[in-house]
Amino acid sequence: MSYWGFPRYISVSEKKAKAARKLRELSKKNPNLKPVILQGTSLVRTWWGKAWNLNLERYADFENRIGRGRSYVRHGAVLDLQIAPGEVQALVQGSRSKPYSVVISIKKLRKEIWQTILEQCQGMLESLQELISGSFPKAIGEIFTHRDSGMFPSSKEIAFNCSCPDWAGMCKHVAATLYGIGARLDESPELFFTMRNVEMDDLIRQAVTDHKEKLLARASRKSSRIIDEADLSATFGIALEQDIVIVSSASSGDTVPSSPRKGKRAESSGRVTSPAKSPPLAKGLKGTKKAVAKETAPRGKRAANAKSDKMRKVSHKAKK
User: Fold this and answer.
1) How far apart (Å, rounded) are the C-alpha atoms in residues 284 and 281?
2) Which residues make Cβ contacts (< 8 Å) with residue 143, sequence separation at least 6?
3) 3-class secondary-structure state, position 3
4) Which strands form 255-258's sheet, in the order they lie side by side?
5) Which of 145, 146, 171, 222: disulfide with 166, CB 3.0–4.6 Å?
6) Helix (H/G/I), strand (E/B), else coil: 158
7) Which residues fall within 8 angstroms of residue 73, CB to CB, at 6 or more apart?
8) Is this prediction's pTM over 0.85?
9) Which of these, 271, 224, 277, lies nearest to 248 by C-alpha position?
10) What string of pLDDT tens digits covers the 320 residues of the chain?
């Protein structure tokens, strides 16, 4: 107490040091404490934390009193904050040595409102990550934060109690706890669904189902980039399945029929495939066989046959 009867001014650094000492002392007895520690100077950073605080500040009976708890959150006075279905419990360090106990009760979200939200969000959510990060479409955010049919509680659905002697309806410790909830939702948005006593899996299950239906619908549509086999054959003038591949010998220039497997080996060794040469037309079956045999004979043998024919012709002329 100061000389003039007013409380002595305590700087922010002193408040932070006092809260830190008390937190270390309590943590030795209860290692499960979950203090509210801000990352930076902002009270909240994510969509869920901001939406929680904005919801509190838009009610007249909260707006004029909730600001008293901002500085408490900033200097680490919320030593513990536990969120359970329909209830939040906290320990807040005040001016006294012993921290004050705060209990905030929040009514369960009505089933009809939750069902309406599920129906309105159908086909709009893509994944769990989208829901947790708050990176969903603006329309979903408006559904969640609607004043009458959204998920965030009104002032009439919130009741609180604090162990401090402050006569005010909402003391600084309660206000600090309410802001602490917003900071905690920055870290764990799924706790919001726990607090409102609804299953987040209902939204996730619906999002997964919608995503699966979209993929199936997309798979059932044929892409314009895919060409049918018939179209491919007509475009390039080839048959997609062939029983025989004709391989041309680079050394002899002759064409030899082979199987597709042999054709692949020939291509790998540098041989070039070419269409088969048709045998010359001949009269009668006998002439055809001779023409085919002559055409398909090896080059050396054909040369020998030609030389033999030439000698027979010269001998025949000599006889005459």
Assistant:
1) 9
2) 117, 120, 121, 150
3) coil
4) 255-258, 245-248, 272-273
5) 171
6) strand
7) 36, 38, 43, 176, 179, 180, 183
8) no
9) 271
10) 455 555 666 788 888 999 999 999 999 999 999 999 998 888 999 999 999 999 999 987 788 788 889 999 999 999 999 999 999 999 999 988 899 999 999 999 999 999 999 999 888 888 888 899 998 889 999 999 999 999 999 999 999 999 999 877 789 999 999 999 999 999 999 999 999 999 988 888 865 555 555 555 555 555 555 545 555 455 445 554 544 444 444 444 454 444 444 444 444 444 544 555 555 544 444 554 555 455 555 555 556 666 666 666 656 556 55
Residue 49 CB-half CA count within 13 A: 19
What is the full DSSP assignment across 242-254? -S-EEEE-TTT--
Structure tokens at 219: 């798979």
140: three-class secondary structure by DSSP: helix
C-alpha to C-alpha distances, 132 to 88, 153, 201, nearest whole angstrom: 21, 19, 12
Distance CA 78, CA 71 (A): 11
Instruction: Domain ranges for the chain, please list them.
Output: 12-216, 238-297
